[in-house]
Structures are given as structure tokens and as C-alpha cells.
Sequence to fold (365 residues):
Amino acid sequence: MGFNDILLMDDPGKAELVRMLSAENEDKQLLFDRAARVKEEQVSRKVYFRGLIEFSNICSKNCYYCGIRKGNTKTARYNLSDDEILHAARYAHEKRYGSVVLQAGELRSPAFTRRIEKLCRGIKELSGGELGITLSLGEQDQDTYQRWFESGAHRYLLRIETSNRELYRKIHPPDEYHDFDTRNRCLRELQDIGYQSGTGVMIGLPYQTIERLADDLIFMKEIDVDMVGMGPYIEHHDTPLYRFRHELLPAGARFQLALKMIAALRILMKDINIAAATALQAIDPLGREKGIRAGANVIMPNVTPGLYRNDYALYENKPCTDEDPDDCLDCLDARVQLADGEIGYGEWGDSKHYMKRIQGQNKLQ
Ligand code: 5AD
Ligand code: SF4
Ligand code: FES
Fold:
């Protein structure tokens, strides 16, 4: 089958996805063009902003790839006050971002559960219910997820990191706190509760093959997620995975592979929300625009107060660590226009996939 026919298939399988991820030169351009077309037809050219608040880098986990892992004693730890978080949310509301993402290292405790509940209610209150809330706070028990949902959070991001059990095992410590099955169970629980659920993977991990990446895309389709955020893996020198840096694809190739993953996913799951991950920009200064052109429709501008940004270093070369929220807004506004997008200011920008899923469920009831 010709490459063009593959791109037009309604439901490409693994072999076709592998071909998309291997595309080079003209084929690669065809892939990006097709993804842009699908995006425009299915979810429009609109790009939604989510104000990202990275409110604490204190984490109880030890993922081998991550710069803020518990075992990294070189990172200065911070934890924003509730007032600072609400202030950042107010800023996002004033700038008509539509919604905010609360992200932090993973902590599990009754006090943490209560804190997030209070913050969700506070954000709803200060915005008169207008700001949507996405949480990205890792694995929690079902009751906690439920309570946060009832406090106003309606989207949750939990990356699977890789859908391959063996690779997952290689990039995490072998203990019950880093368990592949738990991660999957959490994803299911989030969906059952009614969150719009997102997942994602890192692209270009050591020992990750194109076939495994194609499996990742199929995994996303099978669990039927509403949103995906995925970007290149970027080595961090204070992490255990750093010693495998010689096994990696060159950064430029990892970046291209990430763009191809976005495009292939847009073709596979036409109406979901796909974020142009910040990590894209750690490799290429125009990374996020290129992500938009390849099929993404969400960007998460950082609205964390400038003072703390340097310390939320999951990976090296993280962009915007010296900027303030205003710098990022002006910058991204211009960038999105350069990428032929228009910004959906003041809109939640819920995933169309989610809307259809919910309507379908209501019909069945
Ligand atoms: N490179 C790229 N992404 C990373 N993340 C953590 N460490 C890295 C890294 N070194 C991503 C993980 C996590 C998200 C919050 O950040 O996918 O889920
Ligand atoms: Fe903690 Fe998330 Fe980093 Fe793992 S990836 S160490 S859970 S912040
Ligand atoms: Fe932060 Fe450009 S997006 S400075």
C-alpha cells in the first residue's frame, strides 16, 4: 500500500503506525500535512491554553529519569503557599486562559488530599466557576480522586510513561511504589469517576523501539483517553538513567520522532486533545509551534511565579525558567499565530472526544 493510502486509513493498525513513525523526507511532510488536515476537520485550528502551576517539586518517588526525584539531593525543594497558587490561578483567569493545571511531585497523605480539595474550591470561587481545573498529581487512591472531582477538578493527567511493562520496569525502581499495574488501575479509576483523562509517554527512552512506540499509540486508543501529552525524553545528569545517554537517539532525531508520534496519534484518535509538550521546546526553540503544526491543539504556558521555575527541573534545558508569566503569554500568543493556529481564549476547550463519549453513554442509559 502506498504511504498516502495509509494516511487515509480510518483505523490504522500497528504495521501502518510503524510506517508513519519511520517516515522520512517527503513522507514525513505528508504525515504532518495529513495530521494538520485531520485536526482542522475534527477539532478546528483552535489552540487552547492551560495555565500550568508547578506548585511543588517535593516528590515521594524515585523515577530513574526525573530530575526532581526524591533521591536527587541537589535539587532545592519548594512548595508554594496556597495564596501563591491562588494568585497564579487568578492571573490565568485574568488573562482568559480558560483553565489551569495543578502539577506537583507525587505526595499521598490525608493532609495533601484536603489541601488540593481546598485549592480546587478556591480556584472555582475566585473565577466564579469559570476556570476549568486539570490535576496532574500522580497516583492516588480512588477516594482521593473522587473527592477532588467533587471539589471541581474535571480533568486529570497521568502519563503511563511507556505502555511496555518491561521498559516501565527498567526506568523505575522495582518496588510497590512504582508499579505498572497500579498506574493502569489509577487510569481506569479516573475514567470511571468521570474525569476527562489524559495520559502520555516519553519518546526516545533508552531501549525504546519504534514498535514499542506504535504499541503506546495503540494503548492510548484501547483505553480510549480524551487527551494526551507526550514529548521527548531528555536526559538529566543527576538521575540514574543518565548513564544510558550513549544509547539514545541524537536529540534532533528524538524531537522528530516526538512530532511523528503527535501526527500519528492525531490520525489514529482524531478528536482528542493533544498537548504540545514543553519538553519539545527543550530541544528546539520552535518546538511547541512545530508540535501544533504536527497535530497538537493544546499548550500549557507556565504561570508559576518566576522565582520557583528553575527548581521544577524534570529535565535539563527546560524553557522559560527565567521568564515571568507575562513573557510567556506574549511569546506564546505570537508563536501560535505563526503556527497557523488561533487561541481559544476564555474557553475550557474540552476534548471533543470526551463530549462524544459522554453523549454516547447517555444514549445507552
Ligand atoms: N524527560 C522528559 N520528560 C520527563 N518527565 C519526567 N522526567 C522527564 C525527562 N527526563 C515527564 C514524565 C512525567 C512528566 C510530569 O514529566 O513523563 O510524567
Ligand atoms: Fe516524582 Fe513524577 Fe518525577 Fe516520578 S516523574 S520522580 S513521580 S515528579
Ligand atoms: Fe515562555 Fe516563550 S513560552 S518565554
About this structure: The longest strand covers residues 46-56. The chain has a mean pLDDT of 94. The domain at 43-364 is CATH 3.20.20.70 (TIM Barrel).
